Amino acid sequence: MERIKTFLFKEPALPFAYSIILLVVRVIFGILFLSHGVAKWTAFNDATENFPDPLSLGSTVTFWLAIFAEVACSFGFMLGALFRLSLIPMIFTMFIAVFVIHAGDPLAVKELALMYLTIFVLTFFSGPGRISIDEVLRRIMQA
C-alpha cells in the first residue's frame, strides 16, 4: 500500500516555479485534448460507425474508450487529480493513434498525436507539481 501511495502521491522535488510551469502545461494541453473528446462526443452518432477499431473491441466500445481518455482523464490531468492514473488511458490512446492508426501515414498526419504522446509521457514522469489535487491528498495522507 505504501508503494501505491508513493507512486500516486510522490512529493515533488521541483522548485515552486516548475510547479507553475507544470500547471500551465497541464491546463493548456488538458483543454486542447478535452476539445478533441468533446468534438467526438458531440458527433457520437455519425462517428461511431467509422471509428477505427484496432483492439477489436467494436467501434462503439473503442469510441467510448477514446472519449473517456479525452474527456474524463483530461479533467484529472488538468486538476492534477490521480494524475498518473489519468495519464495512462491518455498515453495509451495516443500511442495507438501514432503507432497503429497512423502508422503508415506521413509525420504531418500524426504529428498532433505524437505531440500529445510526448507531453503526456514527460508529465507522467515529472508528476503534477505542487499545484495539484494530488499534492493536497499527499499532505492529508502525511498528517
| SS class | mainly alpha
> What percent of residues are in strands?
under 5%
Low-confidence stretches: none
Average pLDDT confidence is: 89
What is the rounded Rg? Answer: 16 Å
Helix content: over 70%
Distance between the termini: 17 Å
- Determine the number of helices (DSSP H or I, runs of at least 4 residues): 7
Helix-strand string: HHHHHHH
Overall shape: it is: elongated
Number of strands: 0
Sheet having the most strands: none
What multimeric state do the chains show? Answer: single chain
Describe the structure.
The protein is an all-alpha fold. The protein has a domain at 31-129. It has seven helices and no strands. α4 (59-79) crosses α5 (83-101) and α5 packs antiparallel against α6 (107-126). The two termini are 17 Å apart. 28% of the residues are buried.
Which descriptors would you attach to this protein?
143 residues; 7 helices; elongated
What order do the helices and strands come in, and which of them pair?
Blueprint: H1 2-8, H2 16-42, H3 44-47, H4 59-79, H5 83-101, H6 107-126, H7 133-142
Helix pairs in contact: 2-4, 4-5, 5-6
In short:
The protein has 143 residues and is mostly helical.
